[in-house]
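Data availability (excerpt). The following record was deposited with the supplementary files.
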Amino acid sequence: MATLAVDAANQEGGAEQKETKPDWKAVWRPRLERAQTFVVENYLPIAFAVALTFALAYPVPGSFLVHIVVLDNVHIIQEINMAIVFLISGLALNTTELKKAMKRESWPSVAFGWAMISFVTPLLGFAMREIPLTPPAFSVGLTIFCLVPTTLGIGIALVRSCKGNEAIALLLTVGTNMLGVFLMPLWIKFLFINYETPGLALNVNIPDLLAKLTITILVPSVIGKALRELFKPVEEFAKTYRTALSLLSTTNLAMIVWQTLSGARDLLFEQRASMIISVIVLAAAVHVFYLIINYFVVKYGFHPPIQEAVAVVVMASQKSAPVAVTVISYITSDPAQQGLLAIPSIVGQLSQIFIGAALAKAIAPRVQRKLVQYKEAAAAKEAAAKEAAAKEEAEAAESGLGAKGVGADSAEPSRATTTTFTTRTSDIPTPAASGELPPAVGEQPPSRQEGADSTGSALGPTSGSPRT
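Predicted structure:
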């Protein structure tokens, strides 16, 4: 019996060990989910880093693609990549979100953002073009980076991380990029008029540049938006696969960077490290300068709600590297020169990502606290208003009851007077009944005098009873 008991205990222990043995799927599934979340949230810097690594380590595939040219100066693969980016932008464009940003009270913030992105921040290009960098393509690249519109997707994601107003961020992105199609050719002509670029052959043809930007940026956006509005399945597809479409858009942006850097890889390695570092520092400084200017103007110029302020400051301080690379591909046909011109835009975009990520960690808790304070203040104001309304209703009810009471009191004495008069006149004894002699003239018994006084007092002047 003892042996059987020991065997049974051993079997139970073995069963417990089998049950407690961890399943590898249960162990790795949470880790894989965390890794997937990290990759999705940081896909843009990861994709840019991969593109940079492949372009510098093995540039042959990217260089081959960037040298495919049609119609004399159109790098067809890059054009397809950019068209896909704006087609997805149109597909993902939610009209409801745009309507939220077009409320009348939001127009000052939207107008300020448009003005800063399209008309004010490009003025910094005049300073950038005068910086004596070697080669001069770096200065020209910084100048072009200053005049392009705001970022396509990373700006909205950053506003979301900072708890800002996403609707305004979306409206600024769409509006300034559409407007930039018409303004960028003018800015380029204006910034480089009578400006000599040694070693660079820039072809700034406004009608040609306008036509190419329209085909690359405006037309795909309109097609994407039209497909979403006209076909319900397309809208459902865009909503269901929103994250996948965003990743596809970022992949196409990274492919543009990969091809551009691959074509300039050999020329890039010939540059001094100090110049590359200077370009990186200047590109980051441009973003920081924009942040400071926009912050102080928003804070002291006008006082929008904090979520609108965050959206405006973030979006008005960013510039789009892919759009800059596209513009560069239109003003020079040399892939090597394109790569040098694009370096400031690419490192500027990366600096915006890392600076923005650091800012989001500091700004988001502050915005959250402000929102809680706003809600508490609104709740307290609403409670005070309700309390005041209830007090007014109570006072009105009391005054109404008082008016009714006064009316009742004014009607009651007449009824009481009539009753008293009737009662007292019927109770007065006659001389015959009482057997008493009538009083002498001018003489009144004490009891009768008191009764007459009280009766006269009750009747008042309206009783008509003479006093004796």
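Summary of structural features: DSSP finds 21 helices and two strands in the chain.
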